[in-house]
Amino acid sequence: MSSSRPPVLTTQKEISGSTRVLSGPVKVHVVDPSAYTTAYDHALCAALARAGVEVELITSRFDYDAPPVPEGYARREWFYRASLGAPGSRARRAGKLAAHVPDMLRYRARAGGADLVHFQWLAVPALDGPLLPRRRPLVLTAHDIVPRGGGAAAHRRLVRRFDAVIAHSAHGRERLIRELGVAPERAHAIPHGAFAHLAALPPAALPAELEQTGAPVVLCFGLLRPYKGLDVLLDAWDAPAGAELWIVGRAMMDVAPLRSRSRRGVRWVTRYVSDGELAACFRRADLVVAPYRESEQSGVIATALAFGTPLLASDVGGFGEVAAAGAAALVPPGDAVALRGEIARLLSDAPARERLGAAALALANGEWSWERVAARTRALYASLLS
């Protein structure tokens, strides 16, 4: 009986002092020191394992919940094990910073067990260059093309140390080349991947701060940060057709001034929500909005696609490539009038929302499926190892 499972990706290793050559599975370390993107890390590692790659996820403790159970890969918490303090606190951040250099040096010594190292994030770009593993291919996924927290010059120098840099859109790849000076042959575009494992979760209750309602629901989900355009969304909101706006996500800024501007029908959940609560929110939403002022790609978009939820986003970064597939409607960034009009139009047009949802699922099962993402990532690994 034949199997459709991809063959194990192999490489050849020459034994020192001998002419003997061994062939064996490629061993890849996927590295996310601060566990910034646990859902993405899990989905990528599980998909690579299904594609025949031997994967270890090298990361740290996720402070807010139990991480996803590994599927076919190993998870090692090798970073920031002694850091104290509450999640997100100054003490916690200070402890991680103090541990960063010794932990990176310790990891560099352990990286000898991998044929290739794939970083998801560089926690301290100003320090990380000399701390990177040596004598093996290095890959970086540029979730943010240029860091928002400063250190752009150090980031540019650091990115050019990698043998391959992945952006999540063709637009992002062009930025890697144009803004960061990455050589075109080293810059690659591979989609983010839709979070199918979240859409497959069993039914769960909504966050306690929310209530079931018969009114239309517009959902704005994700970490609450200044660039997400929450002020634009609140200026645009006028509760069309008696709709409710749910703003859900852990606050990474002072949201009190924004909450004071809330109008009728706005509900807030400003804490970490579990995967089950996340799934309940996306299943209930009639429309997901991403009114970002700037971004290259978004895990929120990846989630909306997986659930087949109609999506309305700002025309920034690679979002236009999602819209080109019919899976999102777009408005100019920062334009509250346009956003208000498009929210009202979509809430009053069920067939339009159905078309967006169907295209979202098609994209999630097509170009944004983890099978295709893993296949393209695996091919990149093979080209570097050859």
Write a compact overview of the structure shown.
With 386 residues, the chain is an alpha/beta fold.
What does this 3D model show about the protein?
With 386 residues, the chain is of the alpha/beta class. The chain folds into 2 domains: 194 residues, Rossmann fold (3-Layer(aba) Sandwich), CATH 3.40.50; 167 residues, Glycogen Phosphorylase B (Rossmann fold). The chain is 37% helix and 18% strand. The protein is built from 14 helices and 15 strands. It has a 7-stranded parallel sheet. The chain has a 6-stranded parallel sheet with strand order 12-11-10-13-14-15, sandwiched between helices. Strands 1-2 form a two-stranded antiparallel sheet. Strand 6, helix 3 and strand 7 form a beta-alpha-beta unit. Helix 1 crosses helix 14. The chain is globular, with a radius of gyration of 22 Å.
Essential attributes:
386 residues; alpha/beta; Rossmann fold; 2 domains; 7-stranded parallel sheet; 15 strands; 18% strand; globular
Q: What is the number of strand segments? A: 15
The CATH superfamily of the largest domain is known as Glycogen Phosphorylase B
- At the first level of CATH, the class of the largest domain is Alpha Beta
Low-confidence stretches: 13-23
Write down the domain tally.
2
Query: Which structural category fits the helices and strands?
Result: alpha/beta
Strand ordering within the main sheet: 5-4-3-6-7-8-9
Quick one: overall form?
A: globular
- Mean pLDDT across all residues, rounded? 92
Strand content: 15-25%
Radius of gyration over alpha carbons? 22 Å
What's the CATH architecture of the largest domain?
Answer: 3-Layer(aba) Sandwich
